[in-house]
């Protein structure tokens, strides 16, 4: 008999945690479907046997897993068809968001160095962080568990290295003499990035998906909008004060966000 069991994971709040759950449960043959609700931090499991082993596997992730309810599920054919259609729409949308994010990573890191703005460089790495998460989620479908973990480790360490180098450069600029960043390029590029992230947010909200990775993508993109606004504000302050410090402060804050994201990605490789 097909069963439906809902677990609550109070620490599941981004695509990284969702991938951790998917990886943890991938080799359970009794599991037929997984559905995530990020707002409620729940995962619904459709399975054929008892839920005890699934619960134990979730508990090892240390995400605060707990059983909410369990009972009879729908027919597997209905679930499979519905999941396949939903997955196709989500994959197409995530590819669009990934391309936009990676494109602006290239634009921002290039203009960041040209304008001497650590705020733009840091924001570009935040864009790269999002791209890595989306890319890992899309590429890993159908691949082996070992390959998934290797890619997660490589992505996490690469992102961590870039963030570390960025923070070192921020410290060097704090204590040394450097030219004031080009506030015009900071503001113009950040406004364009803000528009791009707003488009991504609109597309994600338009999808009305309740899946965790889609909800999390909305949250990540909302955070990106805030970061873009911060870089714009820093550019305005650079203009008003003719000082390098507003740019270095926003750069430090964003680099720390990137470091946090890198450690989350590394969790997937464990």
What does this structure look like?
This protein is an alpha+beta fold and 270 residues long. The chain has two domains: 3-74, Alpha-Beta Plaits (2-Layer Sandwich); 84-267. The chain is built from eight helices and four strands; from the N terminus they run E-H-E-E-H-E-H-H-H-H-H-H. A four-stranded antiparallel β-sheet has the order 2-3-1-4, sandwiched between helices. Strand 2 (31-37) and strand 3 (42-47) form a beta hairpin. Helix 4 (118-139) runs parallel beside helix 8 and helix 6 packs antiparallel against helix 7 (212-241).
Summarize the structure in short.
This protein has 270 residues and is an alpha+beta fold. It is built from 8 helices and 4 strands; from the N terminus they run βαββαβαααααα.
Mind sketching the topology for me?
Layout: E1 3-9, H1 15-25, E2 31-37, E3 42-47, H2 52-59, E4 65-72, H3 76-115, H4 118-139, H5 145-175, H6 183-207, H7 212-241, H8 245-267
């Amino acid at each position: 008999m097909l069963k439906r069991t809902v677990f609550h994971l109070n620490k599941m709040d981004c695509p990284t945690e969702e991938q951790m759950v998917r990886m943890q449960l991938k080799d359970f043959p009794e599991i037929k479907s997984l559905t995530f609700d990020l707002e409620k931090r729940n995962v619904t499991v459709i399975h054929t046997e008892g839920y005890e082993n699934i619960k134990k596997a979730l508990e090892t992730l240390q995400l605060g897993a707990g059983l909410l309810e369990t009972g009879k599920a729908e027919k597997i054919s209905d679930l499979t068809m519905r999941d396949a259609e939903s997955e196709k729409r989500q994959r197409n949308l995530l590819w669009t968001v990934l391309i936009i994010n990676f494109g602006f990573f290239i634009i921002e890191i290039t203009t960041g160095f040209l304008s001497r703005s650590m705020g733009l460089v840091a924001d570009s790495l935040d864009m790269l962080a999002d791209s890595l998460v989306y890319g890992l989620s899309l590429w890993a479908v159908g691949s082996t568990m070992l390959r998934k973990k290797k890619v997660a480790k490589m992505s996490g360490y690469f992102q961590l290295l870039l963030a570390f180098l960025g923070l070192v450069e921020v410290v060097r600029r704090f204590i040394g003499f450097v030219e004031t960043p080009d506030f015009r390029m900071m503001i113009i590029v950040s406004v364009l990035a803000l528009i791009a992230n707003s488009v991504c947010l609109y597309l994600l909200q338009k999808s009305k998906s309740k899946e965790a990775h889609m909800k999390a993508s909305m949250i990540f993109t909302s955070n990106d909008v805030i970061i873009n606004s911060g870089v714009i504000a820093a550019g305005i302050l650079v203009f008003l004060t003719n000082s390098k410090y507003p740019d270095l402060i926003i750069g430090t804050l964003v680099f720390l966000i990137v470091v946090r994201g890198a450690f989350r990605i590394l969790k997937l490789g464990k």
